[in-house]
Fold these 3 entries.
Entry 1:
Amino acid sequence: MIEEKVFGPLTFKQFICGAIGVGFMFFLEPKLVGITKYVVLFSLGVVTMLGIQRFKPKDISIEDLETELEMKASSMEGEAFLQMLRQKIANVSAQMSIRKSRGLSEDPKLSEVAKVLHKIFDKHQSR
């Protein structure tokens, strides 16, 4: 699923990872001396960047969306999964409404995602 960008180009998880890395650097910087300072700070910077990359949301094609949602359903409790689907449907509907209110043409990808979400929701709601 699409993870919302909360802090500029970063998701919430990426922001937290970066904040922890910068916090460690800020805390350790005055305590280190000489070349050790630069080696440790550089290493922390690399680890922080790798952590941010680790939490990068993966792109899912529309063709794979249904499969991904079914896998998510098997790992979540029924009502929690339905609640997550309701939220995703609301997000997609809001994006479609915003596009329409701005006079933009309908995005076929958004329409397709909405259809898949409704299909999965109806399937799991009837269980």
Note: The chain has a mean pLDDT of 85.
Entry 2:
Amino acid sequence: MQVSIGGATGSLPALASAVVDKLPLAPKLSRASVNEQLIQPQPLHAVFRPQQQHGPLMTPPATNFALDLQRYGPGTGAQSPPTLTEAQQYCRRLAHRHYENFTVASRLLPRELRQHFCNVYAYCRWADDLADETGDATRSLELLEWWEAELGACYGGSIRHPVFVALEETIRQFDIPAQPFRDLLVAFRQDQRLVRYETVEDLLGYCRYSANPVGHLVLYLGRCFSSDRAELSDSVCTGLQLANFWQDVARDFDCGRVYLPQAECRRYGYTEVDLQQRRCNDAFRHMLGALVVDAEDRLRRGWPLIEQVSRELKLDISLFIEGGLTILKAIRAQGFDVWTSRPVVSRMAKLRIVASCWWGLYWRSLGRH
């Protein structure tokens, strides 16, 4: 059977098989992609396989961020900006090189949206690397200030960097305001200053800048942004961010970050000694159980968004919600012991998610005819 949902057409088994390996489960949408999954966020790896070309923008995929920064960073503004075609190729190459969560999203998007998702991804990727790849918080903050100045220059009509040459076209076509781009930078700066959060509200404040702006950008690309839809999107994006935090408690701890709210630790009697010794005791299980329920509630509150967005986005949003719920279910299934092993989702479970979301949307679409 050939089905068409959200601009993607093909047999269900073939399409499901194509995306199952990269199904995004609870991605860290904007936090330094200290994860190998997100935002963050796309299916760009599978969609774009640019040919090896020569020229200043077409460096080999092995080129690292340090070389990109040397070529396009502060103090390099004297060189002529690339053409739009060159800039778009650069953004595709960047997405291909990192292929995190946007890879799944773009495979399921119509062709005319894929480049724009690459352009937005490239902006997030650069901000992410500026925050994480220098190894110096002070230097990272300086570079993030420069990146925000480049964003301002883009909106002011003075474009130099290849990412902004490509992004300007996206901004113009979809009438995207600067605020969601600026909000993401707030979170990246916060990452340089904070490694722990006192209360749940403090953590939600971080998600407001680290995760929610990505959802707003997706709504703009779907030409369906509104305050009501943004509120539902915030619920989904925050739920996904929290699910990723609870999945990666051990991994983040090893990186020097603790997202477990300190007030909740005290409330449940989970001490600093327990934390340092990575104990999964009753206090930890009860605390994480409550945090998992909260994340599940946020994801489920976002369900109405699926029926309110353009058809191009329906399947992606369904996959993100179901993916987040599935990883939270996996945390519960191992008794909330995320210290001993990181919760994972089997290939078969991923395939079931794709099939369930696809068929759910397909049958609902039949009911509307």
Note: The chain has a mean pLDDT of 81.
Entry 3:
Amino acid sequence: MITQATLKLIPKPEAKVVLLAIFKEWAQGGQTVADIFDHGILPTTCEIMDDTSIRAAEEYGHFGLPTGAGALLVIEVDGYREIAPTRISEDVTVPRSKVPELVVRLKEVEKEIGLPIVVFGHAGDGNLHPAVLTDRRDPDKWARAHRGIELIFKHTVALGGTLSGEHGVGYMKAPFLPLEYGERAIRLMKDPKQAVDPQGLLNPLKMFPDPRNPMVSEAGKGQAGGGAGPGQA
């Protein structure tokens, strides 16, 4: 009886390649199949045909198969183009008229921090998703990525924008809230929540800046009044 199952969700691959391998001898094709799997390569398709199968298929369909071959392998592999091992994706929104200027400023941030920033989003409503490409294992790159997120937020607010257009706040964006609203406005926002949630049980640390939020110390002390944090909602 099966009482538990652990599943792994695999995203749709970005790239797919089909290979045709031709061998003079049948045994060579069979050995190649074994070698592929012995090296930890898991193709999505790995089909083999012997000389008789090749000739029969060619006589039937005239596919251009090598009828003199002893074996033929059809191999399909897929995978992903990794630009950087870690990506910090953001969600900022500015007035539509300010989108061109924000894009220019994002490219300036990219040069300043020395890390790639990929920009995509919903330009029609001013909502952009700049993503800083970095490597969490590298302390220097990780620190520069957080600096980039802070600069992205500062430029967004300076252009009359907001820190989130879709995804909301959360652990990683809450430390930056004072940039947009200021401490007084945040105190006013906290009062209703305190009234209905005096023990702080509802979404603790996710709505407002809080020194207990691990993202504050992770991001460094980049801005006055609220700490800093990576910007993923």
Note: The chain has six helices and seven strands.
